[in-house]
Amino acid sequence: MSSKSLKKGNMLSKTVIYLLLAVASLLSIFPFYWMFVMATNENSAINSVPPAMIPGSQLVTNFQNVLNTIDFFGAIGNSLIVSTITTIGVLFLCSLAGFAFAKFHFKGKNILFVAILVTMMIPPQLGLIPQYIIITKLDWLNDLKAVIVPGLIDAFGIFWMRQYISSNVPDELVDAAKIDGCSNFRVYWNIAVPVIIPAFATLAIIKFMYMWNDFLWPLVVLRDESTYTIQIALRGLIDNYVKDNGMILSGTFWATVPLVIVFLLLNRLFIQSLTEGAVKS
User: Fold this and answer.
1) Helix (H) / strand (E) containing 98
2) pLDDT of 233-278, one tens digit each?
3) Which of the two ends of the chain, N or C, has the fewest CB atoms closer than 10 A to its terminal CB?
4) What is the DSSP string of 166-234?
5) Which biological processes are named by the entry's GO terms (predicted)?
């Protein structure tokens, strides 16, 4: 096979790959675009056949209806508080635990790690009642602490950090730091943390999105409207008698925007840290 035909084949394969990626990107973006279209149209345009496929002129009106129905910005603020504090706590605590499991040797380490992995297989609904009893005894009902504290540790986060630290933080570097007199925490902070920034970014995206979208547990422990997170507040847009799809999708659309912003910011950090956060020999 000549080099010319080989180059032609490579160009064709690249073209096919780019086309597939373009189609996949459009399919991924379309639900968000469709939600935006419905958020800018009236019910008549949304329910028509075929439905409206281009943005309408009701974006401000629909959002104003959202503000008149629920405390949208208050709920957004509560969700930001819950998601941000929980994400920071998970990054710190899970990376500490992952570092211990990856680099320390202690009795029962493997058994304890397996026990943590087993908890990932248990549906969270099974722990709802005992968790609710604990929160009630602590008198944390209708308080954001009831949502923040139970989310500060995450089995997947420990597993993810342990695997990443095991493969990216050399044992020789840890041993050299200990020989130089570094404490365990200083080894973690000065040696491990700069290396695991990509893992931080990935776990932050997963945890922030999970806490932002969590509905069941906040619904159980938050009863007062002033403590509602955004997912609980959006439930108030649904009326039993009149269904305003434009208003509902407007609230949903604007509640999704912070997620997209956080994802884009952390995604950039993830890509940047791949090139700048490595251990240099």
Assistant:
1) helix 72-103
2) 999 888 766 678 889 999 999 999 999 898 888 877 666 655 544 4
3) C
4) HHHS-HHHHHHHHHTT--HHHIIIIIIHHH-HHHHHHHHHHHHHHHHH--HHHHHH--SGGG--HHHHH
5) transmembrane transport
Q: What is the pLDDT of residues 39-54, one digit of tens each?
A: 998 887 777 778 778 8
- Burial class of residue 226, CB neighbours in 10 A (0-12, 13-18, 19+): exposed
3-class DSSP state of 151:
helix
Structure token pair of residue 191: 């040696």
Residues across the chain = 281
**Stretch (H or E) spanning 69:** helix 59-69
- Which residues of the chain carry a pLDDT beneath 50? 276-281
Q: Which amino acid is at 160?
A: W
* CATH no., domain 70-237: 1.10.3720.10
How many C-beta neighbours within 10 Å does residue 32 have? 13
H or E element, residue 249: helix 245-276
Cβ burial, residue 190 (10 Å; 0-12/13-18/19+): exposed
Which H or E run contains 145?
A: helix 145-148
Query: Cα dist. 19→23, 27, 67 in Å?
Result: 6, 12, 42
